[in-house]
Amino acid sequence: RRSAVAIYFKGYKEEEPFKAGFKKIWMNLLSYRLQHFNEAIFLEQCNHSPFINENLKEVSKQLIQPLFVLMERGKKEHWIKNADTILLLTHIVGAINNVARYSHYNRKPLKPEMVKLLFDLCWDGIKG
Q1: What is the 3-state secondary structure (H, E, C) of the chain?
Q2: Residues of the chain with pLDDT > 90: what percent?
Q3: Residue pair 42/49 in contact by the 8 Å Cβ criterion
Q4: Phi and psi, residue 127, nearest 5°
Q5: Rg of the Cα trace of the chain?
Q6: Quick one: 51 exposed, middle or buried, by C-beta within 10 A (0-12, 13-18, 19+)?
Q7: How confident is the model at residue 120 (pLDDT cuts 50, 70, 90)?
């Protein structure tokens, strides 16, 4: 889990403008899901397992804390909707996961123009 999280935040700097930082993390998440599909699916299944205790879930939440901080900043700066952060992240990550599944199971690589469109769709869905 730690190695995946390191990839999610690769190149991200807290001080950069909100949209640039958000896009970097979004692209990293998508790239990770596409390039490490089986591992990502496994981690997702583990996260939803009733055998994972609350301590492990809390550790996972702490690992992705910079994303929560970024989302709160985006709401404060009026970049994104002032909605519950978990709901926003569910929308964002759910879309990324479904696109990765579609690409993997249908053996359809995502072209750069498709990735741009997907980001724009996500952005349009959360912007304030």
Answers
A1: CHHHHHHHCCCCCCCCCHHHHHHHHHHHHHHHHHHCHHHHHHHHHHHCCCCCCHHHHHHHHHHCHHHHHHHHHHHHCCCECCCCHHHHHHHHHHHHHHHHHHHHHCCCCCCHHHHHHHHHHHHHHHEC
A2: 70
A3: no
A4: -65, 150
A5: 15
A6: exposed
A7: very high
What value does the mean pLDDT of the chain take? 89
Extract long-range pairs of 82-85: CB within 8 Å, 24+ residues apart: 82/128
- Model pTM score: 0.86
Tokens of 97: 């996961």
Listed residue (13, 21, 120, 2) closest to 74, CA to CA: 21
Token pair belonging to 103: 């690409």
> pLDDT (tens digit, 9 = 90+) per residue, 44-84?
776 667 777 676 666 666 778 899 999 999 999 999 999 99
